[in-house]
Structure formats: C-alpha cells, structure tokens
Amino acid sequence: MTRVTFPSSSPRRIRQSNAVATLNALHRFGPLSRAELARHMGVNRSSAGNIVLELVEAGLVREVPENEAANSAAQPRAGRPGILVELVPDAVFFVGIEIGVEHITCVEIDLAGKIVRSSTRCFEGRNSGPEEAVRTAIDQAFSEIGKDDLTRCQGLGITVPGQMDRNGFIHVAPILGWRNLDLPALTRTFLPAEVPVSAENDANAFGIGTTYSQHEAANGVTFFMVIETGVGGGIVIDGKLFRGGNGLAGEVGHLKTRNSEYRNLEQAFGRDRILSSYRQFDPDADLDAFLSDVRDRVPEAVQFAEEWSSLLAFAVVQISRLIDPNRIVLGGSVAELYPLVAARVDAHIRDLQAATFPIPEIIFDENAAYGSAFGAACMMHQRFVSLDNQLLNRDAVSDPGNSAA
C-alpha cells in the first residue's frame, strides 16, 4: 500500500499527490474499482471518488463497466458488473527517440504505456553532425502525427550512445563523434511544438524501459547491457537507476580486456569487430548472415562465436565482482548471438568466477528492438505521472493542453 497524503502538505499538494498515485495505480494494475483504488492509495473511498472525478473531468481516466474494461486485471465477479476506472490511453502520448550509429528508432507510447507507433530507419550516425541527426530524428518521429494531435504530446525523450550528465549534456559520444553538446536544448530547436524534453544514455534508457514495463524486473540489482557497435551498460537497483558519482556507472564497454590487441571490451566484441573479422572469411557478410552461420555450425562462425563467448563471460565476471547483480539483461542486435552460445558463456564464467561468487542470471531481452527508444518514452511517461507534472495541480488538472511547457 502506498500512502500519498502528508499532514504538512497544502490541500493542493495533497490533491496533486493523490492524482499521481491514482494514475500510477491504474498504470500498474489496470482497471480498478474505487474501493480497490482506495486500498492501493491508503485513502477512504470517498476521497478516491473525488480524485477519480477530477481525473475524469481532465479526460485522463474514464469509468467503464467491468465487462467492458480494456485489459481488465480484475477477477470476474458474480452478479451485475461493477463500475471500474481505467486510463484513457489516447488522452496523451509520449515520444521516444534513439539515435544510434547505424539507425534511428522512434517510438510513441500512450498513457497506458503501450507502443502505438514505431519506426526504425537506417542512418549513418558517424557521418552526420548532431544538428542533422536530431533534425532527421524529429522529422521521423513526428511525420505521422497531425498538427491537431501535437497538444496531446506530453514529452519527448531522446537517447544516444554517449557519456552525459543527468541534465542530458553530452560530454562525449565517441562513436558518433559528438562533444560538449546540450542535447535537450538542441532537440527543442527542431520540435514542432513546445513539449518537455529529456535526454539519456541509451543503455540507461534500455534499463528504464525494461523495469518500467516489467515490474518484476525492478526487484534487486539488474545490470543492463546494450551490445551494438558500442557496448553500454546501465544499473538499476530496486527500480531506481544508479548513475554513479559522475553519471558514468555501468560503462562496461570501457573495461580493459585480457587481450592486448584491443583497448577495451567495446572494441573486442562489438558489432564492428565481429563483422570486420568475419568478413575476412565472408566479404559480404552482415550480422544476420553471421548469426545464421553460427546456427548452421559453420566452423569459422563458430570460432568467432567462441571468442565472443569468452569475452562476454569476462565482462560478466567483472560486473559480478563490482556490483553483484541478481541478473544481467542483454539487448541490442549483437546480443542475439547470446542464445546460440549461452552454454559456452556459462562454461567460461565458471572457469573464471571464484566458487564463492554467485553467478547472476543472464537474460536476452527478445523484445529489445525498441529498447532505448521505448525507455526514452517511458522516462517522459514517468515524469507525467509524477509531482513534476504541473497538469495535476488544482489549477491545471482540468485542461491537459496547458501542461506542455
């Protein structure tokens, strides 16, 4: 049970807190009765009814018969259907963008946190400046959104593979070649409407999106590793992103390897290394061809996969010794190799890991195609259903269009 009222709070703040708690409960549990809402929030049923009324007037929630509720999580009841309360999914929406080295991915999610639109297009990030990349990404994200719908956009999150502070200022994005860039400010210059903007490292966003949509993943310590051209990492502890002292926690790609041929893990088992090495055997190979050859047990492909397995195992052992995670979640195109070599990775880990250290569960996220972009959108959804959203105070709650500041 989450209690959301505080004796020292003003009436306005109490109402805002209760509205936030209501939206969060409906997002997490689906349609609920007023009595169920009251129990989740720790308030009486009358108070829950007043909160619901305000949110209905704001167009953010609606009342529906139990047998008509969308994705109802409630147990069927005997007798006449009760009245449940649920989110209005299309009341508002949030946009997430991932600018990668070889692609731009855009995702739109609704108030229920569901993906309603997505797109991925090839893009040469290393040959494009930040202005071109951001402008192209914004055009892609909003190409199918009409002008009349822009007022429903309540946030845009954008991610890149780079080192940035909590305000989205990029110190360096070495693979893209960007330095000293205020990414949120640049993004705002290309937006077709004034909406809240936030920027995040791609691996952190991947972790945020996974834990936000899969509540069981929020328990304990989870390390998220994105393996693309670069190798990034994010740490989530009991549902909270751990950034470290300077926002650089989880940068596993910069760990040194045992092989002096490569400066770090990113160079040793990222996408570029795999393809440049395998193309010595098959000049026309792309990643899909390599993965197919591994499945077909082509000797040269198996040899490269074995080396990759040992390097991933090395990374897992170092991560385990530093933060002792319960699980490691893999995402990114190169991570599709893991299910094919999971047994070899496990064998290498057991050779490297001291018997007194537990081995974390390793999970390949099959739904990670939109991972970082989805996470970026989730960041803005999370902001909307928090006390940072001024829409939910007494003066603004009746007019969602006033909150896009």
Automatic annotation (TrEMBL):
<dbReference type="InterPro" id="IPR049874">
    <property type="entry name" value="ROK_cs"/>
</dbReference>
<dbReference type="InterPro" id="IPR000835">
    <property type="entry name" value="HTH_MarR-typ"/>
</dbReference>
<dbReference type="Pfam" id="PF12802">
    <property type="entry name" value="MarR_2"/>
</dbReference>
<feature type="domain" description="HTH marR-type">
    <location>
        <begin position="19"/>
        <end position="65"/>
    </location>
</feature>
<dbReference type="InterPro" id="IPR036388">
    <property type="entry name" value="WH-like_DNA-bd_sf"/>
</dbReference>
<dbReference type="Pfam" id="PF00480">
    <property type="entry name" value="ROK"/>
</dbReference>
<dbReference type="InterPro" id="IPR036390">
    <property type="entry name" value="WH_DNA-bd_sf"/>
</dbReference>
<protein>
    <submittedName>
        <fullName>ROK family transcriptional regulator</fullName>
    </submittedName>
</protein>
<comment type="similarity">
    <text>Belongs to the ROK (NagC/XylR) family.</text>
</comment>
<dbReference type="InterPro" id="IPR043129">
    <property type="entry name" value="ATPase_NBD"/>
</dbReference>
<dbReference type="InterPro" id="IPR000600">
    <property type="entry name" value="ROK"/>
</dbReference>
